[in-house]
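Q: How would the structure tokens look for this protein?
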Amino acid sequence: MRSAATSLALAASMTILALLIGCNIGPKYHRAPVDTPPVYKELDGWKVAQPQDTSIRGNWWELFGDPQLNALEEQVNVSNQNIAAAAANFLVARAMVKEARAQLFPTVTVNPGATWERPSATLRSNNSGTGGTGTTSTSTGTFADYILPFDASYQVDLWGKIRNQVNANIYAAQASAADLQNVRLTAQAEVAVDYYQIRAQDSQIQLLDETVKAYQVSLDLTKALLQTGIDSDQSVAQAETQLETTQAQATNLGILRAQYEHAIALLVGKPASSFSIPVDPLSASPPDIPVGVPSQLLERRPDVAAGERSMAQANAQIGVARAAYFPSLTLSASAGLESSSISKLFTWPSRFFSVGPQMSETIYDGGLRRATMQQFRANYDETIANYRQDVLTAFQQVEDNLASLRILSQELQQQDAAVKSAQRNLTIATDRYRVGLDPYLDVITAQTALLGDQETAVSLRMEQMTSSVQLIEALGGGWDASQLPSAASMIAKP
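A: Here is the predicted structure in token form.
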């Protein structure tokens, strides 16, 4: 009994010592510095939201004030399968946090068993000849062994290996949460872009339908002038060709509209065969978008946040690899009941136990630990480079879309003026043709120029709307890093 008490005291002392001297030898994490410009260069000359609105809030698509778009975006959040897959990936990452954290606690197992054994007659006679008593057995030489053992083991986290692994998994889960938000934002932006592409197609179809009506009037005019002898059949043929060509163009626009509609069906998780969007020509104007300052972008972009969390994860993995250079301590204990008779199994004399620490250290591994350290340090350097590249890409995308919106606003004013001039030129050409001063070819030229300018104006308005969506996406869509799940939420029971 005294030796058992001594063993228990020794194990307890070593446990307390391990808790007292346990340390984390992993490197402290510091976010890699990046160059952040004080202002966006392309903001100059472009109207933004009021100064008090420094960030996008709530559902960003509501800035456009379109109920149809709002309904589609709500379906994306519920039914998009890419979002569902990313959400499942996050749940996997969160479960891995709990798996790693479980190593901080002892493992207790129980292995009850019962065996019946009959040694050979030779063995029994040898035991009798040497005076061996053996295990109590029946008259036939068969004996039973009943055992109810409990085993416990605990790996003391002396050097922070387990804690660093837990932290690494927490950072990986946070990166997965940011990836989930990035997938969600990408799907939402794609729906909005495709939606305004459809609206632009509706405007183009409306424009061509109106043009077809105008060309029909022109054809009727050429036929009337042919009957009066003022014009020739050639002008009639030219008018018919122009009319039929425009009708074919209007019909062809239905292909692209259908493809955009099918793309939205995929994004909202609906079969393309049962999904449709009613016709409604583009009439919206781009909203005022709160841009904020460049320093906020690092916290508002989910892809940048994911890169930063991956950097923290790689740093923690260095601590895991470094701990392999130091000895590991495992505390083990076993206790239970064992008897050759089931009736005596739960009696005091049937008890047994063992307890003691075990320490191990690798003396030689052929450079494995050094290579592992080099691997994780290189991984960390890679995440730093990827993070800085993500930041540069984020600034580029914001500046690209700011420049696009600024230039498009000027170009649209110029294009609208060109449309007015083309309309005036067509009116003059038609009047001169009607009185026989100019050939019908001049009317065709003026009509073609007007249609081209009108189509360009529709395309520019579509680009303006899609650039607005892409600017919001580049700014993070109203998300920020404070929405990442905390470490405490990762280990809490669901």
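Confidence is low (pLDDT under 50) at residues 131-136.

The first helix runs from residue 2 to 21.

Upvote if useful.
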